[in-house]
Structure formats: C-alpha cells, structure tokens
Amino acid sequence: MRPGRTDVAVVGGGPAGAAAALAMRRHAPARRVVLLEAGRHDRVKPGEILPAAARGLLRQIGVLEPFLAGDFVECRAVVSAWAGDALEERNSIFHAQGAGWQLDRALFDRLLLEAAATAGAEVRLGSAVHSAAREGQDWQLKLSDGNVVAGTVIWATGRNWKLARPLGAKLRVHGQLAAYIRFFDRAPGDCRLVIEARPEGWWYTADLPRQRRVVACLSDPDLGGELRNAASWYRALAATRHIAPLLPSSAREIASLAKSAGTAGVDPAAGERWVAAGDTLFAADPLSSRGITHALRSGILAAYAVSDMLDGQDELARTRYAMFAEQGFAGYAPALAAHYAAAARWDTAFWRRRRRQAEEERRPVTFPGSSRSAKESWFEAKSEGT
Ligand SMILES: Cc1cc2nc3c(=O)[nH]c(=O)nc-3n(C[C@H](O)[C@H](O)[C@H](O)COP(=O)(O)OP(=O)(O)OC[C@H]3O[C@@H](n4cnc5c(N)ncnc54)[C@H](O)[C@@H]3O)c2cc1C
C-alpha cells in the first residue's frame, strides 16, 4: 500500500461513522481505517433518546460495557399529549427490550470515537473533508489539513450532503421541519421523554446527564421563524400544558440550537467504492426516535459493504446495501403521516399540512408509464408544503 493511503476513509465521526470504523476494525482488522471528523464533539447536539433496541448494536461494535458504565440517564417512559390534551404513558416495563437512555450526545459521540481509536482506527478530529475526486481506483479527499487517498469511502456526514455531487449521488428532500432547541442547567430528576402537540407544531423535553434538561419545539421552518427569537420561544413554551411545568423555575438556559429536522436521503445508497450511512443515507423526522439506532445499524452494514468492495465484490456489495436501505424505511411515510394525522386537531397551517399529507398518503396513486412511486409523490407534495 502507498504510504499515506488508507483502505477505508470514514467521513464524519457521529454514531454512524464511529460504528462503521468499529465494525470495520472487528470485521476486517487487516484493513487500514482513517476516520475524519470536522468537529471535536465539544458542542451540544440534539438526538437525546437512545431506544433500548440499540443495546444489541452497541454490543456488536464492542462498546456496550463502557456505555453502560457511562453517565447516561435511563429513559423509563415516553409520555405524550398527542391525540388529546391528557398525557398517555408508554412505560418501558411493557417494552420487551426494557428502558432506553437519555443521552448527552457530545459525551456519547466521544465515547464511540475513543473506542474506535482504541480498536485501531486512526481518528482525526478537526479534519473537515471539502471535496472528493476519483484517482484511478481510489478516492482523493481534500481536507482542511491536507489530503487523504482512500480505496473506499464511508460517507457519514449527517445532514451535511455537500459530498453528494462529487460522489455522484442525488439528495432527495422529502419534507421540511425545523427544531428550536434550548438546554438548561437544572433537571427535575424525571426519567421520561415528554411530548406535547401544540398549534405551532410539537414539543419535547427530557432530563439529560449532568443535571441538564433539553426543551425543543418542532415546527415548519417557514412557520416557526419567530421561534428562533428567544422571547417568542419562551412565550410559546409558557402556553404548553405539560412541558413548561417540568422546567424548574431556577433553571438557567446554557445553550440554544436551531437545526433542520425534516426527512431527506440520498439516491443511490452506495456507488463507485462509496457507501452512505446514518442521516446522510436517510435522515428521519425526530418523532420516529430512530435516528441513532439507524446510524449505528447502517454504519455497521456500510463497513461490511466496503469490506466486500475491497475484496472485489463491488456490485454485490452495492445491491445488498441498496436493499437494506430500501427495507430500512419501507412504510416510514404512511406511518409518519398517520401518526401526525392523529394529533391534527387544530386549524393551523402546520396541522392543515399534516392532514392533507395523510389524505394523500391514503389515496391510491398510480402513474401510468412512470416509475415514480406513490411514496415519492407524497414526499414531493409534502416538500412543496403550502
Ligand atoms: C431535534 C432532533 C431531535 C432528535 N432526537 C432524536 C432522538 O431522540 N433519538 C434518536 O435516535 N435520534 C434523534 N435525532 C436524530 C439523530 O440526532 C441523528 O439521526 C443522528 O445524530 C445521526 O447520526 P449520524 O452519525 O448519521 O450523523 P451526525 O450525528 O450528524 O454526525 C455527523 C458527523 O459528521 C461530521 N461532519 C459533517 N460534515 C463533515 C465533513 N465535511 N468532513 C468531516 N466531518 C463532517 C459532523 O461534525 C458530525 O460529527 C434527532 C434529531 C433532531 C434534529
């Protein structure tokens, strides 16, 4: 191997990239793996609830023990005022896999990257990849701090899809949503995720490790603009019935974040010696609470796919991975639309859109002479969103 060349470059060190690097080290330890992460996981991030289903995935990449020893809060119930004003509880006692966790994401992401480094991956923090170009059979990646030549690329940059064009993929935006999030320095000791539908969208709140609390409002970006403004956000919070009382009066805001949270993904899922994983592959609505498990699972399968590519089985690897990507979110659009429709009891723009989307989802759509699916058409209608 040429000096400086790597078998696998993992671009992005969130849960998907870290799981890919860890799986690669376990599955094909002779292969050289470099993980390039633009940041340092020293800032707040959303994505706080890790469902119990993640346990098996964490075990598979060898991090279950350090994770269980870490400082994460058990999430014993999901409580929601969704179809009506009263709270309904789904307790983890009735869940076959038990309780999930309320995460400090920066802490969680650092734990995974430390494990990847210990397992033998070369982890480079502060290394943003700006472009990718084919160089013979390899990929040449241009970074903020030099170049990397890689036999294969695992593309796991979350909701940053800037590498789509050089890799030859298309971004498909299926629906808009924005999250207006604030973090606080007091936690009431409540081991539950609380969700409340409101005329402007929906809210969630949960305790986080280290006595922190997160409170977020999800709305359409064109409607929720004023939620960026602190005074409007606090006014809307005060009108909630179940979210506001869970914030201790002595709590001080310590950070805030506005983040895109709509549904989007790339097509194809894998190409010439590259594979997309995590949110880059398919970013789901946070209502589904499955972003991190999807990131871990797709990261692991992306590692198997690039390993097959390095063994000369490119087409088989791409076909298998595309099948996984397709199956992973089959049924997502109708299930999401039906779930939103159950809460659509206000005559506001946010809920009128959700009612219309649910109706379109129920209507059988056929496109004579066209390969477009009903699902795609629903998504397009949703993203036009009037
Ligand atoms: C408001 C909100 C709430 C959510 N709540 C939940 C929840 O409760 N439970 C859940 O499971 N999921 C939740 N999610 C989804 C979850 O946050 C994501 O699905 C998850 O973070 C995806 O992991 P990832 O590794 O694919 O991407 P990310 O975690 O986004 O990681 C991508 C990494 O790539 C790096 N990067 C980006 N560009 C480059 C580049 N050019 N070069 C190098 N590195 C780069 C970034 O710095 C980042 O560290 C939520 C999302 C939102 C928006």
Q: Tell me the fraction of residues in β-strands, as a range.
A: 25-35%
Radius of gyration: 21 Å
Which molecules are bound in this entry? flavin-adenine dinucleotide
Tell me the CATH topology of the largest domain. Answer: FAD/NAD(P)-binding domain
User: In CATH's first tier, which class of the largest domain applies?
Assistant: Alpha Beta
**CATH architecture descriptor name of the largest domain:** 3-Layer(bba) Sandwich
The largest sheet, given as strand count, sense and whether it forms a barrel, is: 8 strands, mixed
Low-confidence stretches: 365-386
Mean pLDDT: 90
Number of domains: 3
Contiguous helical run count: 11
Distance between the termini: 54 Å
Q: Total strand count, please?
A: 21
Q: What is the approximate shape?
A: globular
State the CATH superfamily name of the largest domain. Answer: FAD/NAD(P)-binding domain
Please give the structural blueprint:
Layout: E1 5-11, H1 15-27, E2 33-37, E3 49-50, H2 54-60, H3 64-69, E4 73-75, E5 77-81, E6 88-91, E7 100-102, H4 105-118, E8 122-125, E9 129-135, E10 138-143, E11 146-155, H5 164-167, E12 170-175, E13 178-184, E14 192-198, E15 201-208, E16 212-219, H6 230-238, E17 253-260, E18 263-267, E19 270-271, E20 274-276, E21 282-283, H7 291-310, H8 314-328, H9 332-343, H10 349-362, H11 374-384
Parallel strand pairs: 1-2, 1-11, 2-8, 5-14, 11-20
Antiparallel strand pairs: 3-7, 4-7, 5-6, 9-10, 10-11, 12-18, 13-16, 13-17, 14-15, 15-16, 18-21, 19-20
Notes on the structure:
By secondary structure, the protein is α+β, with helices and mostly antiparallel strands. The protein folds into three domains: 181 residues, FAD/NAD(P)-binding domain (3-Layer(bba) Sandwich); 115 residues, D-Amino Acid Oxidase, Chain A, domain 2 (2-Layer Sandwich), CATH 3.30.9; 40 residues, no CATH class. Helices cover 32% and strands 29% of the residues. It has eleven helices and 21 strands. The strands form four sheets. Strands 1, 2, 8, 9, 10, 11, 19 and 20 form an eight-stranded mixed beta sheet that branches. The chain has a seven-stranded mixed beta sheet with strand order 6-5-14-15-16-13-17, with no helix packed on it. Strand 1, helix 1 and strand 2 form a beta-alpha-beta unit. Helix 7 packs antiparallel against helix 8, helix 9 packs across helix 10 and helix 10 runs antiparallel to helix 11. The longest helix is centred in the last third of the chain and has 20 residues. The radius of gyration is 21 Å and the shape is globular. It starts with a strand and ends with a helix. The site of flavin-adenine dinucleotide has 35 residues, from helix 1, strand 2, strand 13 and helix 7.
